[in-house]
Design brief:
Blueprint: H1 10-19, E1 33-42, E2 45-51, H2 60-73, H3 85-96, H4 100-104, H5 108-123
Antiparallel strand pairs: 1-2
Length: 124
């Protein structure tokens, strides 16, 4: 019986590990652009994506204004509104300068993607 058939070749494992090494993702414009799966029409205009880069320019006054808007809409406050889809949409509306009605008409999957981008913005 040939013993070389059962020999473990560590050099092949090391090469594989190098090839599959996962690097941390760098921040890019893709982090703030949500590309829609299907075009979305609002007030006669077709949208294929939204750019949330305006979040970077928002300040405490903007955050407080959105928080107050959210509290009025929900008759109270939330401990962590940043995780609420409605809060995220209100924040995105302010960042993009689009009306909240734009966001309320989006498909649910797009709403979740936007909510995740907004939440990630706060906690990344």
């Amino acid at each position: 019986m040939d013993d070389k058939k059962n020999v473990f070749d560590e050099s092949k494992v090391a090469d594989t590990a190098i090839e599959t090494k996962i690097e941390p993702a760098e921040e890019s414009d893709d982090d703030v652009v949500v590309v829609f799966k299907k075009p979305y029409t609002f007030e006669g205009k077709e949208y294929t994506q939204i750019n949330l880069s305006g979040m970077e320019d928002m300040d405490a006054k903007d955050f407080i204004a959105v928080n107050k808007q959210f509290a009025r809409a929900n008759e109270g406050t939330s401990v962590m509104p940043e995780f609420s889809p409605e809060f995220a949409l209100m924040f995105a509306a302010r960042a993009t300068k689009l009306p909240i009605e734009f966001f309320y008409g989006l498909p649910v999957k797009e709403v979740i993607r936007i909510k995740n981008r907004v939440s990630n913005f706060f906690f990344a």
